[in-house]
Design brief:
heterodimer; A: 195 residues; alpha+beta; Glutaredoxin; eight-stranded mixed beta sheet; two-stranded antiparallel ribbon; globular; B: 273 residues; mainly alpha; 14 helices
Chain lengths: 195, 273
């Protein structure tokens, strides 16, 4: 009996230790959990773009929509603040704001929206199905509430910021509750670490 | 959405379809071909149990339900209620009398296989079907996959997600087979142990369910990270999920009690005759 228990405890410990973080990051380390960056979307200038077009830059990917009243603006302002504090290093970073509401978010509207936060911010959109495919790859989803009399509707979406390294590998995950300091610290660490 | 859209799998898995159809084929074959099967008491009732269990696994694993399970905590809890409790219980109940006939030529192939394959499998099975290990594993797996850090990784990584569901389903079969299956160390001695095992798994599940339901903070933030299938407040999602972990899961133990008691009653009646 004791042997059985030992084996069980050992295997449990082994399984738990496999989930331990490998890097001393403050944000959630997602290395190996998500696939590499890959998508086919439309940018603010109505050009077709793929994930490969952005390799070489450290990327922060966010799924949102421009009519969002709370989650998206607060996340974008937080990231704008982080990039400001990064100084010259910020040139190596882009924020990809991927619209989960392509019906309302035209490329032009996205451009007006991202311009508010700075040149590092890029708006991307596509037909609903393509955005769904892209988001499925990163295990995120979105859904629409019922429209009111004026045609406005609520959109449930991910509040996460996925951070990819220059080679397009998913490395870190920041959430709405992540502080600006933590994002800054880990982003700086990622920019200076060998990829 | 049309009905067809609800039936289309979120992640199509040919392997799952093949294996799951094979399970149904083997069971149906045992039902149809075996002449003795016709004499099994309450055969239609048992077959109904098996097919309902079989179908419910298919629905939660390979339809739109799977999508909802990945993006809504309470639907995920419902999925595990089916995979770990309801479906294995029903399928075991439906197959318990036919177990020996389920796999064609089971004994001859098994006996002919070399010892280096047979022995580790037998030892593993013996270990997993140990009366102390099985309840520990049953509850341990629920706690393991609901451990916030592990749950986070499992919902974010597709392979881990499937590993989670596979372990839950397999463990469900192992546990309910031990509780409701044929003769655990004989009817006489097995009875007490079956009741104890059901009692042992009941309380920790209730504690966990109550903890999740009554927690004032959000324990599973992965659903905020990944987004939810439709707009719902995170606390409502967590409360519903906690209730599913708490009440229906413990009711399954009560159902288990009733089934074991009924079996005991039938056994004693048989002795008295």
């Amino acid at each position: 009996m004791t042997n059985f228990k030992k084996v069980f405890v050992f295997s449990l410990f082994f399984m738990l230790s496999a989930c331990a973080e490998t890097e001393p990051t403050r944000l959630t380390n997602i290395e190996g959990l998500l696939p590499e960056l890959s998508f086919e979307l439309i940018d603010e200038n109505n050009n077709e773009v793929t994930g490969k077009d952005y390799l070489g830059q450290t990327l922060i990917v966010f799924f949102g929509f421009t009519n969002c009243a709370e989650v998206c603006p607060s996340a974008m302002y937080k990231l704008a603040g982080v990039l400001k504090k990064l100084g010259t290093e910020a040139e190596q970073v882009n924020v990809l704001f991927i619209s989960v509401d392509p019906k309302r978010d035209t490329p032009k509207k996205l451009q007006r929206y991202t311009d508010v936060f700075g040149p590092a911010f890029i708006g991307l959109t596509a037909k609903n199905e393509l955005v769904k495919q892209m988001s499925k790859r990163y295990r995120v989803t979105f859904g629409y509430g019922d429209a009111d009399d004026e045609g406005n509707y609520e959109v449930s979406h991910s509040g996460a910021m996925f951070i990819f390294d220059k080679l397009g590998r998913a490395r870190l995950l920041a959430t709405q509750s992540s502080s600006m300091e933590d994002i800054l610290l880990d982003l700086r660490w990622l920019l200076n670490s060998k990829v | 959405m049309s009905l067809l859209a609800y039936l289309i799998p979120w992640d199509f898995s040919p392997l799952f379809v093949v294996l799951w159809v094979l399970v149904a084929v083997l069971y149906t074959r045992a039902l149809l071909l075996d002449k003795e099967a016709a004499s099994v008491k309450g055969l239609y009732w048992r077959a109904g149990c098996f097919y309902v269990g079989w179908l419910s696994v298919y629905i939660v694993w390979h339809t739109y339900f799977d999508y909802l399970s990945q993006y809504m905590f309470w639907v995920h809890r419902l999925q595990h209620l089916v995979l770990h409790h309801l479906a294995p219980l029903l399928m075991v109940l439906g197959a318990v009398e036919l177990a020996d006939k389920l796999v064609p030529a089971r004994s001859s192939i098994w006996l002919a296989s070399p010892a280096f394959i047979k022995r580790p499998c037998e030892l593993m099975y013996k270990f997993l079907q140990n009366a102390f290990i099985a309840p520990l594993l049953f509850v341990g797996l629920i706690y393991l996959w609901l451990w916030p850090g592990i749950h986070f990784s499992a919902m974010l990584n597709q392979n881990l997600y499937y590993l989670m569901n596979i372990t839950m389903l397999l463990d469900g079969f192992l546990f309910w087979w031990l509780v409701l299956g044929a003769g655990w160390r004989g009817e006489e001695r097995g009875f007490k142990m079956r009741i104890i095992m059901l009692a042992v798994v009941l309380v920790p599940q209730q504690l966990l369910g109550a903890y999740i339901t009554l927690s004032s903070s959000i324990i599973y933030d992965v659903y905020d990270v990944c987004g939810r299938a439709w707009p719902i407040s995170p606390s409502a999602d967590q409360i519903y999920g906690g209730i599913v972990t708490w009440i229906p899961a413990s009711m399954m133990s009560v159902l288990g009690f009733l089934l074991v008691l009924k079996r005991r009653f039938n056994y004693q009646q048989g002795l008295n005759v």
